[in-house]
Amino acid sequence: VGMLLGANVSVGACVTNLICVTIGNIIGGAIIIPCIYYATYLAADKKKSSNV
Fold first, then answer.
1. For the chain, how big is the Rg over CA atoms in Å?
2. In this structure, are residues 24 and 31 in contact, taking their beta carbons and an 8 Å threshold?
3. pLDDT at 52
4. For residue 1, how far is the Cα from the chain centroid?
5. What residues contact residue 14 under an 8 Å CB cut-off, 6+ apart?
6. pLDDT tens digits for range 1-52
7. Where are the domains of the chain?
């Protein structure tokens, strides 16, 4: 949108930013979020079952 309104941004800068953001989202979605779910749900279930 900024390019359409006359901002001083090149197409290369937009593509570079888009690639970096996409890689960050892939890493976050594929590694960080599953680790949080594991720590929240599965690790808590293992602690409960070991106390029985």
1. 20
2. no
3. 53
4. 23
5. 3
6. 888 898 899 999 999 999 999 999 999 999 999 999 998 888 777 767 665 5
7. 12-46
